[in-house]
Amino acid sequence: MALDVWFKLDIQNALRAAEQASGAALRVAGDVQDPYVAGFQAGYRAALATIALAFGLMPTSPELVSQPQGSVEPSVQLRVG
Q1: For every one of its 81 residues, what pLDDT tens digit does the chain have, with 9 covering 90 and above?
Q2: pTM value?
Q3: Is the dihedral of CA 45, 29, 74, 66 positive or negative?
Q4: How far apart are CA 25 and CA 33, in angstroms?
């Protein structure tokens, strides 16, 4: 059985890339002010923040961990700790 080793910076970069791809797709797909688009985006970012926390990365903004309904942060920002 092989042992996979992941550096926190690599995980951080992968999460940022996933957020960037999602944001680009949403900008092309529809109105970012649409409540369904905003809800999807908030949920997607919450999922990325959850994965980051599982790897010991801390979101720099507390809103990424617990967002009020209807608020959407412009990007996922993570701090390597």
Answers
A1: 567 788 889 999 999 899 888 888 887 877 767 888 888 888 888 899 999 999 888 876 555 555 444 444 444 455 555
A2: 0.64
A3: negative
A4: 14
